[in-house]
Design goal:
By secondary structure, this protein is α+β, with helices and mostly antiparallel strands. The chain folds into 2 domains: about 1-105, Aminopeptidase, CATH 3.40.630.30; about 135-285, Aminopeptidase. About 25% of the residues lie in helices and about 35% in strands. It is built from 8 helices and 15 strands. The protein has helices at about 25-35, 40-50, 90-105, 115-120, 160-170, 175-185, 220-235, 250-255; strands at about 1-5, 10-15, 15-20, 55-60, 60-70, 75-85, 110-115, 125-140, 150-155, 190-195, 195-205, 210-220, 240-245, 260-270, 280-285. The chain has a 15-stranded mixed beta sheet that branches. β11 and β12 form a beta hairpin. α5 (about 160-170) packs across α6. The chain is globular. The protein starts with a strand and ends in a 7-residue tail after the last strand.
Length: about 290
């Protein structure tokens, strides 16, 4: 049963208040993720927060749960869904997901689920459509990839923003220009060209224990390996993470570069699955929460 609080902050459910996630909540949200042994730094919460919106649930002044979503045009992604261990088993995660789904303007949604969360999402209409593999470790600079004739690598610059967003859309089916801009502002990018045509790009940014490679968008597996190998050389001897769709065929290659598979997640969708144009493919995610 829901009722309105006297302060008008939001609906009460089981004695707990649900309201919009605020910037001042991020330190407590980070604390929840630390308790759950997530790798995210406070800076990682601060990176993704302005790109989307979220729901917070409080017991008194204590933040005990949070969930976020990002609107990418015809599709939305859900992520950063976490409930304090002491409050689990009460249906709070289900309430968070329901509130987000009720506010989405996008006709479909996707997320990446742990085994623990998959059942919750299935009850809200999400269906499994694939897997994601998390690879990480200390990068080894030995993955030399010879560039075919006519191929060249160069740094991504601000003037590339529209082209990067278009390639990303063609690969993922998502309209994520603000995300591409944030990645350029706070990370680094590299563009792969065949003569004057852009045939792929990849990004690198600080994340968790080290750095994260992603997204990686490329016309084929060879191009993807070239783009990833560039960052392996840059990050040699440092801790790196990359999240990939296993069907793209680069998992064993990543393992030889020191990035072993340490976890998997289930890609789930509610509505029609997002689809690219078939020419460009997403070989690595920007983040599991962001698709």
């Amino acid at each position: 049963m829901q009722e309105q609080t006297e302060s008008g902050e939001g609906p009460v459910w089981g004695g707990m208040v649900f309201r919009a996630l605020r910037p001042e909540d991020l330190a407590q949200a980070w604390g929840l993720s630390q308790a759950a042994r997530w790798p995210h730094r406070l800076e990682d919460w601060q990176f993704i927060y302005p790109l989307g919106s979220g729901v917070a649930v409080l017991d008194g002044d204590q933040l005990i749960g949070v969930a976020m979503h990002w609107d990418f045009g015809s599709y939305a992604t859900l992520g950063m869904i976490i409930v304090s261990e002491a409050y689990r088993g009460r249906g709070i995660a289900s309430q968070l997901v329901a509130r987000i789904l009720n506010t989405l303007s996008a006709p479909a949604a996707l997320l990446h689920a742990t085994p623990h969360g998959a059942g919750v999402y299935a009850r809200h209409g999400f269906q499994p459509v694939g897997q994601i593999s998390q690879h990480q470790g200390v990068a080894i600079d030995k993955q030399l990839e010879t560039l075919p004739a006519g191929w060249s690598l160069r740094p991504a610059i601000r003037d590339d923003l529209d082209a990067l967003a278009e390639l990303d859309r063609r690969a993922s089916g998502l309209s994520r220009r603000p995300l591409m801009q944030a990645l350029l502002d706070q990370g680094q990018g590299v563009v792969l060209q065949e003569h004057d045509e852009m045939i792929g790009f990849s990004m690198l940014r600080p994340f968790g224990r080290g750095e994260l490679i992603g997204p990686v968008v490329a016309v084929d597996e060879k191009a993807a390996r070239v783009l990833i190998a560039h960052w392996l050389a840059v990050c040699a001897g440092r801790f790196v993470r990359i999240d990939i769709p296993p069907e793209m065929g680069i998992a064993s290659w990543l393992a030889t570069a020191g990035l072993m598979r340490v976890d998997t997640g289930t890609r789930m969708v509610c509505g029609a699955p997002a689809a690219g144009d078939g020419k460009f493919h997403a070989y690595a995610l920007a983040a599991q929460a962001l698709g």
